[in-house]
Model the fold of this input.
Amino acid sequence: MLSLLNRYVDWLHLQWPGGTEEPLPRVEADFSTEVPGLFVVGELTGIPLLKHAVDSGARVARRLLPECEKSPEGIVPLVIVGGGVSGLSAAVEARRLGIDFQWFEAARMLETVENYPIGKPIFTDPPGHSPQSTPRTSF
Ligand SMILES: Cc1cc2nc3c(=O)[nH]c(=O)nc-3n(C[C@H](O)[C@H](O)[C@H](O)COP(=O)(O)OP(=O)(O)OC[C@H]3O[C@@H](n4cnc5c(N)ncnc54)[C@H](O)[C@@H]3O)c2cc1C
Done:
């Protein structure tokens, strides 16, 4: 019974900090923010869709390639915060492009998707949209 309750609490994502509502960050069309060097992708942009998460993560990694190539020896040019769909997409693309990166995940990789209710239909909106991605890259 306790383990059932624990699973339910996890599914509700109660392990993450709650409390006051935070406004979404202001994000430009190229996913840049008013903080230099900080880019926001995926659901934090206000669009809660898998395709958008994949697309935005890969796009930002591509956009950052020229800057990352100029990074001095020994400096990690890219830090990815979050091992969700968009973070994974950014990491896959960065790996494909040869960008060195550090990756931080607070809980478990792909936890949001792992916690979808069993049997839930997966919506693939917007119809006909093919996100930028490189699914054949392996880790
Ligand atoms: C129940 C449910 C059903 C859904 N169904 C659909 C669907 O059918 N179709 C669809 O298109 N979309 C669906 N979505 C939305 C889709 O899952 C999200 O849009 C997508 O997962 C967003 O990807 P993301 O990488 O931005 O965020 P997430 O996948 O949520 O990943 C964020 C990651 O960041 C980590 N993190 C958070 N804070 C920190 C920190 N400070 N440091 C390090 N790591 C941190 C978290 O642990 C998490 O792993 C659904 C969402 C939910 C919750």
